Structure to design on (394 residues):
C-alpha cells in the first residue's frame, strides 16, 4: 500500500532477458530472428532483426541527430527529473538483471500492491505491416510463455497482459484464450497504430472485442516510438522528440475517436479499455470535440450511437497518469477520478520511479489520489480477494 491506500500499477514494465527468443521461440522460426550478440557470442540487449528488418526504426531515423549538450537544461521544466535518470535509482534492478525479485523491490519502493506487467522490447516486435502471421504468433507465444514464468515468482502480486499478433485476428483470439485460460493473463495489449489497413472501428476486430468481453478481461492500448508503420515517422522524421510526443498522445486520441464514433463501445458495451502511458489530460479535450460535432453528424454518420461520447468513456474507458502532471486534478473533475489509474512506467528512462505515487499524493487531494491509485483494480477487474492474496504474501 501507499500511505495506507491501495495501489494497482496499471502499467509497470519488465526488461526482457536478451536470450528470451533463443530459449522460448519455436525452433522453426529461429533463423528468421537475429539477436544482437556480445563478444562471448551470447545475446545482449539491443535491436532485434526480424525477417531482415530491425524491430525499431529509431537507429535509422536518428542517424543525423544533433549531438546533445554537455549538460541538460532542466531549470524551466515543470516536471521533476525522472527517478530512473538519477544515478543509482535502478542499481538494485541492474544488479539482479531485472529479475522478478527486483520487480517486487521496485513495487515496495513505490507502495504497489499489484502490478500489471507490460513488455519493453516487446512493444516494438510486431510494429510493422505485412508480417507473416505465423511468425507474429510465434513471437507472441514465446513472450507470453516467458512472462507467465516470470509472474509465477509471486503470482498474487505480479500479473500480466498477453501480447497478441495483430496480423491475424483469429490467431489473436486463439492466443488470448490460451493466455487467459492456461497462463492467467488479465487482458491483452495492442499498440494504437493502424495495422495492415485495419483501424480500430473495423469489423475485422469484432471477434477479438467479443472474446475480451466473454472472458471479462481488459484491452490495453500502449504506444511506443519508432514503429515501422507509424505515420508519425512520415510527419516528424528523424526527430525522436517530435515522434515521442506525437505518438503517445495523438495515436491514443485517434484510437479513442475510432472506438467511440465507429461504434465499438456501442456494440461491445462490456469491453474495458485502458489508454496507458500517455498521461490523460488529452481525454477531456478530445471528448469535448466529439461532443461538439455530435448534434451535427450523429444522425447522418453514426445513427447507431445511443450514448454521448463522455458516457461511453465513463462506461468503457480508463486513462493513466504518471503522477506528476499538473493537470491531474482538473482532469479528474472532467472525466472522473474513478476513470483514471497510475502507470509507474518502471524501469524506463522517462519514468519518475520511485516517486510516481509520492508525486501524485503531493499534487492532488488524498481522496482523489485514493481513487486514482486504485483505478487499475477496476480496469483489470481485481476484487477484494485479489487484494487479500496480495497482502498475504507482501
Amino acid at each position: 500500500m501507499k500511505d495506507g491506500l491501495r495501489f494497482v500499477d496499471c502499467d509497470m514494465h519488465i526488461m526482457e532477458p536478451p536470450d528470451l527468443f533463443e530459449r522460448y521461440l519455436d525452433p522453426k522460426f529461429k533463423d528468421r530472428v537475429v539477436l544482437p550478440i556480445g563478444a562471448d557470442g551470447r545475446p545482449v540487449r539491443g535491436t532485434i532483426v526480424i525477417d531482415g528488418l530491425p524491430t525499431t526504426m529509431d537507429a535509422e531515423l536518428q542517424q543525423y541527430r544533433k549531438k546533445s549538450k554537455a549538460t541538460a537544461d532542466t531549470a524551466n521544466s515543470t516536471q521533476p527529473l525522472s527517478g530512473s535518470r538519477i544515478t543509482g535509482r535502478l542499481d538494485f534492478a541492474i544488479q539482479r538483471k531485472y529479475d522478478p525479485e527486483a520487480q517486487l523491490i521496485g513495487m515496495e519502493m513505490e507502495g504497489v500492491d499489484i502490478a500489471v506487467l507490460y513488455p519493453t522490447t516487446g512493444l516494438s516486435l510486431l510494429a510493422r505491416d505485412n508480417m507473416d502471421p505465423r511468425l507474429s504468433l510465434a513471437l507472441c507465444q514465446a513472450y507470453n510463455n516467458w512472462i507467465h514464468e516470470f509472474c509465477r515468482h509471486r503470482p498474487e502480486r505480479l500479473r500480466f497482459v498477453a501480447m497478441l499478433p495483430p496480423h491475424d485476428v483469429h490467431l489473436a483470439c486463439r492466443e488470448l484464450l490460451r493466455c487467459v485460460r492456461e497462463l492467467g493473463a488479465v487482458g491483452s495489449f495492442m499498440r494504437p497504430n493502424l495495422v495492415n489497413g485495419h483501424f480500430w472501428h473495423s469489423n475485422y476486430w469484432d471477434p477479438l472485442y467479443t472474446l475480451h468481453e466473454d472472458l471479462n478481461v481488459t484491452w490495453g492500448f500502449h504506444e511506443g516510438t519508432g514503429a515501422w508503420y507509424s505515420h508519425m515517422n512520415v510527419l516528424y522524421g528523424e526527430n525522436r522528440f517530435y515522434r515521442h510526443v506525437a505518438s503517445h498522445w495523438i495515436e491514443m486520441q485517434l484510437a479513442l475517436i475510432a472506438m467511440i464514433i465507429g461504434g465499438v463501445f456501442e456494440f461491445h458495451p462490456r469491453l474495458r479499455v485502458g489508454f496507458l502511458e500517455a498521461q490523460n489530460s488529452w481525454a477531456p479535450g478530445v471528448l469535448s470535440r466529439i461532443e461538439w460535432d455530435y448534434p451535427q453528424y450523429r444522425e447522418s454518420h453514426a445513427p447507431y450511437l445511443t450514448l454521448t461520447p463522455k458516457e461511453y468513456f465513463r462506461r468503457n474507458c480508463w486513462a493513466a497518469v504518471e503522477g506528476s502532471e499538473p493537470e491531474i486534478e482538473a482532469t479528474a473533475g472532467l472525466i472522473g477520478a474513478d476513470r483514471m489509474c497510475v502507470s509507474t512506467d518502471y524501469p524506463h528512462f522517462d519514468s519518475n520511479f520511485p516517486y510516481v505515487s509520492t508525486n501524485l499524493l503531493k499534487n492532488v487531494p488524498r481522496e482523489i489520489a485514493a481513487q486514482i491509485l486504485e483505478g487499475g483494480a477496476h480496469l483489470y477487474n481485481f476484487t477484494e480477494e485479489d487484494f487479500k492474496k496480495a497482502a498475504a504474501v507482501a
